[in-house]
Structure formats: C-alpha cells, structure tokens
Design a protein that fits this description.
The chain is mainly α and 372 residues long. The chain has 14 helices and 2 strands; from the N terminus they run αααααβααααααβααα. It has one domain: ABC transporter involved in vitamin B12 uptake, BtuC. Helix 3 packs antiparallel against helix 11, helix 6 runs parallel beside helix 8 and helix 12 crosses helix 13. About 2% of the residues have low confidence.
C-alpha cells in the first residue's frame, strides 16, 4: 500500500470517527437510539457543497450545514423524545430515508441523481516549503496528542479494572487493553510516517487529512470536557434512569434535545468532510449502511467512551483495508461475494466481542446501556 492509500484510510477513519462521536453523544451518553444518523451527514454534505458553489466561504458553509443538521435534530426531538425509545428509533430511520429521497428526487435543489460536483475544496493549494513544514509540524503535534489520549484512557481503564478486581478479591490485569494500545500505537505511527511523506509531496488529500485531524481533536477535547461537566453527568443520569434527575428538578426533555441536536451538528460537520473527500456527492453515497458502520464503531470501541469511539474507527478502517487486500488473495470467494463475506466477518467479530467484552474495548461495564 502506498502513502496515498494510507492517507485515504486515515482521512476516512477521521471522518467516521467524527461521525460516530455524534452518535456516541446521543446513545452512549444520553441513551437515545438513533438508527438514522446518516440523515445528519446528508444535510451537512449537501449544504456545504451547494453553498460553496454559490460563493459562500468553506468554513461558513460547513457551519451552516452543522446548524441545519442541528435543526433537523430539533425537529425529530420535539416530536419523539417525549415518547418511548422505540418510537425515536423508528422515526430516525424514516427521516433518514426521507432526506435521501429528497436528495434523489428534488433536482432543482440537489441536482438529483446527477450529483453535485466541482465545488471548492479546502487546502486545494500548491504550498511552499515553509507551509509544508508547518503542516508536518501540526501533524506531529496531533500524533503526539493521539498517543497521549490513547494511553491515558488505557491507564484509566487499567486502574478501574484493578479497583473492581480488588473489591471482588479476584485480581486480574487487563492485558488485552495494553495489546490494543500497542496495536493502535503502531497504526498511528504508520499513518504519521505516510502522512509526512504525502505532505512532503503535497496533495489535496494530505491537506484534508490534517484538517480532519484538527477538527477531530477539537471535537474530542470538547466532548471530553462536556462529559466531565455537570451537563454530561446529568446526561448519564438520564441514560441510567431518567426518573431520578426528573425528581431532582432537571428538565429531562431539554437535556435529551440538547444531546440530540449537538450529536446531529457534529455529524453535519462530518458530512462536510465527507463531501470534500469524495469531491462529488450522489444520493447513493448516503445509504443506511453509513449508520450501520457508525454503530459498529461505537459498539466496538465502547459506548460512552469518546476515546473508544476513535479507537473503534481506527480498527474498523484497518479491518476494511486488510480484508480488501487479503481476502482476494485467499481465493475463498468470488469478487461478487467478497463484500458480503467482509460484512459477515465483522458481524462475527462483534458477536465474539459481545461475549468477551460486551462494554467494548474502552467502554465501562457499569455504564453499559445495551441491557437496560
């Protein structure tokens, strides 16, 4: 695999990580089941692409896309969050399909099946030597931050596991967490080295990878701050038993609505990057499979864990790359069957994970919401 393909995988992992962070806020923190998360990405992607074609600056277009995604969350939340959770799941599925069908059929607005193309792209420039070195320096800082973030979470998970083990008089060491940490460190190093190579021979894709990484780091830091704030603690209390915060005088509906809107806005920003990475967007790019992939990432990394969500995105795309190259070499299936086989394998991996570590790799078992 050349450096360009590694950069593509890193960018994809970053975009999906941002996308999944929005879902993790909604489900992992607030317990809101959203099976139509792709709708927010669709809104963000089309808004950004169409507005930039009209001369709106890229940053402003992306912010407007995130705002419209949040408004979609407001509309869904106002009509469903007072009802049972299964109603929310059903409505989100319907809304995501409605948004996709509007994008497909309303040609006057979205150009329909012809797609939207030739819109401006960020960092589509020819940088000089100093600019290249600046981008490499930023990438270096981001790699250091990613390593620090990873091992801080592994350390915290290790300590919590030991504390639980001490209380039960069955001391165990979560060696598996260290193994995952070492594997992820190796992946980050591979991405960093290939990113430096691509930035030295600058391409638009390399610049986009750096930009995605910057936004992802900011979103992660902000969500970590919110998780530890009183707002985040109230969301977790609502997830566990909403009657308790309601009895303490908290407006449960308002907190749920805030979480749903903010998660939608984050997904809307991911939609902007999705459009920039593809350079041309079609309604078929926004199938329900994107929501399924986001759920895989959150469950794999650990619901309620921002670091786990990013780790899940890295592992998901590492798996995607390995199976894309390895399976055809084995000759166990035809080209038309390989896609279904890859989905079957990741389904099997999730089944094993649910037995071995149901809270996900970096999730907390005491915060698991699957069994509520």
């Amino acid at each position: 695999m050349d450096s360009g393909y590694i950069v593509f995988l890193a960018t994809s992992a970053g975009i999906y990580g941002l996308f999944a962070l929005g879902l993790n806020l909604q489900w992992g923190f607030a317990g809101l089941i959203n099976f139509g998360h792709v709708a927010f990405v669709t809104i963000g992607a089309y808004t950004t692409a169409l507005l930039t074609l009209q001369g709106v600056p890229l940053i402003i277009a992306s912010v407007i896309g995130a705002g419209l995604a949040a408004l979609l969350g407001l509309g869904i939340g106002m009509s469903t969050l007072r009802l049972r959770e299964d109603y929310l799941a059903i409505v989100t599925i319907g809304v995501s399909e409605l948004v996709r069908l509007v994008a497909l059929n309303e040609e006057w607005l979205t150009k329909g099946a012809f797609g939207v193309n030739r819109y401006p792209l960020p960092l589509d420039i020819q940088p000089n030597f100093i600019s290249k070195q600046l981008l490499i320096a930023i990438l270096t800082l981001l790699a250091i931050f990613a390593e620090w973030m990873l091992w801080q979470n592994v350390k915290r998970q290790w300590g919590e596991s030991q504390s639980i083990a001490d209380k039960s008089y069955k001391p165990t060491k979560p060696i598996s967490l260290v193994i995952w940490g070492v594997i992820t460190t190796a992946l980050i190093l591979v991405v960093y080295v290939n990113g430096v190579i691509s930035l030295s021979n600058y391409t638009f894709k390399a610049g986009l990878m750096v930009l995605v990484s910057i936004v992802l780091a900011i979103a992660y830091a902000a969500l970590e701050f919110l998780e530890r704030s009183p707002w985040g603690r109230i969301l977790k209390a609502i997830r566990e038993d909403e009657e308790i915060p309601r009895a303490l005088g908290k407006n449960v509906f308002w907190y749920k609505l805030q979480a749903f809107m903010l998660g939608g806005a984050i997904a809307g920003i991911a939609g902007s990057f999705f459009a920039w990475q593809l350079t041309t967007i079609y309604p078929t790019n926004f199938e329900p499979l994107l929501t399924f992939n986001a759920w895989i990432i959150v469950v794999l990394g650990g619901a309620g864990s921002n670091a786990g969500t990013l780790l899940g995105a890295i592992i998901f795309w590492a798996y995607d790359s390995l199976t894309r190259f390895v399976l055809p070499q084995l000759g166990i299936a035809s080209d038309s069957q390989l896609g279904a086989l890859r989905v079957m394998i990741i389904g099997l991996i999730l089944m094993v994970l649910m037995i071995w570590r149901p809270q996900g790799i970096l999730g907390k078992k005491e915060e698991l919401t699957l069994g509520r």
